[in-house]
Amino acid sequence: MVDEGAEEADRDVEPEDDDSGAVIAAVGRQVRLWREAAGLRAAELGAAIGYGENQVYKVEVGKRIPKPEFLDRADEVLGAGGKLAAMKKDVAEARYPKKVRDLARLEREAVELGSYSNHNLHGLLQTEEYARALYEMRRPSFSADQIGRYVAARMARQEIFDAEPLRMLTFVLEEVTVRRPLGGRAVARRQLEHILHVGRLRHVEIQVMPTDREDHAGMGGQFQLLKFDDGTAVAHWEGQLSNRLISDPKEVRIIELRYGIVRAQALTPRESLAFVEKVLGET
Questions:
Q1: Angle at the Cα of 20 from the Cα atoms of 17 and 25, rounded to 5 degrees
Q2: What is the pLDDT of residues 160-175, one digit of tens each?
Q3: pTM
Q4: Exposed (0-12), middle (13-18) or buried (19+): which is 179, by Cβ within 10 Å?
C-alpha cells in the first residue's frame, strides 16, 4: 500500500539552490543504481517501501527530496547495507534553506557566539512551539511545508549547546522578548522555563536589557557575533527581507564594541535569570 501521506510530506528541490540540488541528485543516482542492481522496477520498489512509482522516479532524478523513512526502507529492501541510510544526514541538511545552512555552518565553526535580540528571542533559545508560532504569524503566510522546514532547521541548529568542545554562548535579550506571550500563555511559560534551563548551563550566559534603560548601545538593531579559533570574527545581521554577513574587520570591530557596551548596560546573568523567573511567575 502506498503511503500517500509520506509522499505528500516530501518536497521538490528548489532549482535556485545549487548546493541542495547537487546533494539530492547524488542521492537519487545511488537509489537508482541500487534499485537496478536489485532487478526491481520503480513501481516495485515503491510498492515495497510504501511510496508511489512517480515518487520513486522523482527521487531518482533529483527532483524530490526523500524523507529519512524513504532512505531507511529503500536501504533495507535493496540490501544496501546501510549505504543509503547513511545519506540521511546530508539529505536532512539539504532540506533546509541555503541561508539557514550557511548560518548553521558558521555557528558550528565558531568558538564563541554573542547575540543581541531586540524583537523576538534568538533562534538558538527558542522552543519548537515558540518557533512554530513565529513562522505561523509571518505575512505573507508560509505554507505548512515551509513552516515545517524552517522549524526543523532552527531546532537542528541547537545542537551547538552540546557540541564538544563547549562554545561560549552569550545572549542579550530585550525585556519585551521575554514578556511578549507569542503563541499564547502556555507556549510563553514553556519558553521562559527553557530560557532558565539554558541559562544555567556553564557555558551559557543570558542577560536581559530592561526597557527603562536611558542609555542603550544597541539601538541600531539586532545582530550576532561569531568568533573563530584562528582569531577572526564575523557578524550576522538579519533584517525584514534580507540577511547580511559582515566580515570587514573594521565593521566587525564596531559590532564587537557595541556588544560589549550592550552587555555592560544589561542586567547581569544572575539578575537576568531572577528577572525571567519573576516574569514566569506573572505569566
A1: 115
A2: 999 999 999 999 999 9
A3: 0.70
A4: middle
